[in-house]
Specification:
Blueprint (H helix, E strand, L loop, with lengths): L11 E4 L2 E4 L14 H4 L6 E3 L34 H9 L46 H7 L2 E6 L8 H17 L3 E4 L27 H7 L20 E2 L2 H4 L13 H9 L4 E6 L2 E9 H9 L8 H7 L4 H7 L4 H9 L2 H15 L3 E2 L1 H11 L11 E5 L10 H10 L15 H5 L19 E9 L2 H9 L11 E4 L3 E6 L21 H20 L2 E4 L4 H8 L7 H5 L2
Parallel strand pairs: 3-14, 4-5, 4-8, 10-11, 10-14, 11-13
Antiparallel strand pairs: 1-2, 6-9, 7-8, 12-13
Helix pairs in contact: 4-8, 4-18, 9-12, 10-11, 13-17
Length: 563
């Protein structure tokens, strides 16, 4: 299925009761563009709302290629628990069901032949295990660690998940393109977040045993127990940085004894490339923080060509770049011939296939237990809609909101009926009544669809749904749409507004247990969005673009089969 974006020429293709707005890309391998399924090389099944133009002009947004795509998701297993169990799990934000892991950084392995799940928490078979006892030859490590890409994630720590993870993905793309080992330099422990991470504190964080009961009690206090030695901090508490990127290298410049502040100073300098040594071994290091990385991607070479443009079209070194992402020789060859958007989609697929951006095992565990509290039947196909309001209404979403209301005849930007795009606009992405089917006796076939709504403003969205016409059996959250679609809406069981997409804002003032609760709620919504049959997202949001990036899979069957 094709990509959804309002920036490019498009055609309409019906899929799962939705129209998909698609980019026309050159399918030089698949050839025939007359068939919707064969038009694109990558499987897409999503819709953008609001006609958002995505680019690098606004700080904090990932550059152009990080818009949204989707891949056919795997259905999640349905888990049933009692109402009493649900209440307990919601109270602890999904962390109450398991005791802490014995190891702070280990992850379970996939069964042979199984496919990695969203943010797979295991080491792919193609990647060397970081726990291997084999001693690497010194000269090999010297060569791999001579060129370092050092990324400092903390500058974006007050942003949401989408901004932080998109920036991490951007760093991985740059590091593999430049053929450098990528190392994460986290902020010193305790700066600036109590508990050591903007993503909060799972039970596994602390020394000693903790149960669900005393975890809930800890959420009400300002002090925290002693953090386990070596437990991940910063961004690394959320994701496992893979050896595919680090190449087994450590923090560089050991002989110079540079501090975190020294490296941050290098990242802010006009010249962020330094030369140093570790154990007498010479190293060349590029140091980046969040905004510096965005600027770097837009920087131009002596011919006036931006690095981003080089990445999109350059043939020289493209196969090596792909192999740095664990591509097979065939995949690397194909990648070298791809250009523009098709190359970015291929790149994202290679990262996904390699097992990049694995969740830490405690995050994966607590998401699964939190999912048990949901009423959404996850063993069935479902639609997911991302409705971002909150802080996005102030800046990033303001333009689309104004444009929408102008299209409805409201020209006074300071006196709009609402400061957001109504939820009904999202539903209008569905097929019209002309696409309804009749059965053998001429009656309209009713197509039942479960719809999950991920939003940071659930009460308002619930009210909007309740005010729509044609409700079924007086159920405020089930209605008929366009004569033949029976839509049943589901929300997260966590009641509080502002929870679903926010670890930012007042995070430094927040108790680390409350931050973790919000973190798990957000990541659970993310998993539901990624695994939906059809997803509607907003491309003006880092969250929406991240969802797209994590749903890419290749649609060329022969390449997928390795032929």
């Amino acid at each position: 299925m094709p990509t959804c974006s309002f920036r490019f020429p498009f055609l309409w293709c019906p899929t799962f009761g939705f129209f998909v707005l698609a980019r026309i890309i050159v399918a030089f391998i698949l050839g025939n563009t007359a068939q919707c399924q064969r038009l694109a090389l990558f499987n897409i099944n999503s819709k953008a709302v609001g006609g958002i133009k995505v680019g690098a002009s606004e700080k904090g947004n990932i550059v152009e290629f990080a818009e949204a795509v989707t891949a056919e998701p795997r259905a999640m297993e349905e888990n049933k628990v009692s109402a009493q169990e649900k209440e307990k799990i919601v109270e602890g934000a999904g962390v109450v069901a398991l005791e802490p892991s014995s190891s702070p950084s280990s992850a379970p392995s996939l069964e042979p032949g199984s496919e990695p799940s969203f943010f797979p928490s295991s080491t792919p078979s193609s990647e060397p295990s970081s726990s291997s006892s084999a001693v690497e030859p010194k000269e090999d490590k010297e060569d791999k660690c001579a060129r370092i890409f050092l990324q400092i994630p903390a500058q974006f720590s007050e942003h949401g998940h989408g901004s932080q993870l998109n920036n991490y993905l951007l760093g991985a793309i740059a590091a593999t393109f430049l053929d450098r080992a990528m190392i994460l330099l986290e902020h010193p422990y305790g700066k600036p977040y109590a508990g050591g991470s903007q993503f909060g504190c799972p039970l596994d964080t602390f020394e000693g045993g903790f149960t669900a009961a005393n975890f809930s009690a800890l959420k009400t206090v300002d002090t925290i127990p002693k953090v386990r030695e070596g437990f991940p901090i910063g961004l690394s508490r959320l994701v496992v940085h893979p050896e595919m990127l680090s190449r087994g290298c450590d923090i560089p410049c050991v002989d110079q004894k540079y501090t975190y502040d020294d490296f941050f100073h290098f990242a802010q300098a006009d010249e962020n490339e330094i030369t140093c040594t570790s154990g007498g071994i010479k190293q060349n290091v590029l140091v980046f923080h969040g905004f510096g990385l965005l600027n770097f991607m837009s920087s131009k070479n002596s011919d006036g060509v931006a690095l981003l443009e080089q990445m999109k079209r350059q043939r020289e070194g493209a196969e090596r770049w792909a192999k740095n992402m664990k591509a097979t020789p065939l995949e690397a060859k194909y990648f070298s011939f791809s250009t523009d958007q098709n190359r970015w989609d291929c790149l994202l697929w290679l990262f996904h296939k390699s097992g990049f951006m694995k969740l830490q095992p405690w995050i994966e565990r607590d998401i699964q237990f939190y999912l048990k509290t949901f009423d959404l039947p996850m063993s069935e196909e479902y639609i997911a809609i991302h409705v971002r309001r909150g802080d996005k209404l102030i800046k990033e979403s303001r333009g689309p909101v104004v444009a929408y209301w102008k299209s409805q005849g409201y020209d006074d930007e300071d006196n709009l009926p609402k400061n957001y795009i109504p939820f009904v606009k999202y539903l209008e992405q569905m097929d019209g009544p002309e696409h309804c089917n009749n059965n053998d006796v001429g009656e309209t076939e009713v197509l039942r669809r479960n719809v999950y709504v991920a939003t940071d403003d659930p009460e308002v969205v619930r009210q909007e749904i309740a005010e729509l016409p044609n409700h079924v059996k007086n159920d405020p959250y089930t209605l008929m749409w366009n004569n033949c679609y029976e839509l049943k809406f589901y929300f997260s069981p966590l009641k509080r507004n502002g929870t679903f997409f926010h670890i930012s804002g007042d995070g430094r003032k927040d108790n680390c247990f409350s931050r973790y609760e919000r973190n798990i709620a957000s990541m659970t919504d993310m998993e539901i969005l990624i695994k939906a049959k059809t997803t509607i997202v907003e491309f003006n949001s880092n969250w929406g673009r991240l969802i797209r990036n994590l749903r890419v899979r290749i649609n060329a069957i022969e390449i997928r089969r390795g032929n």
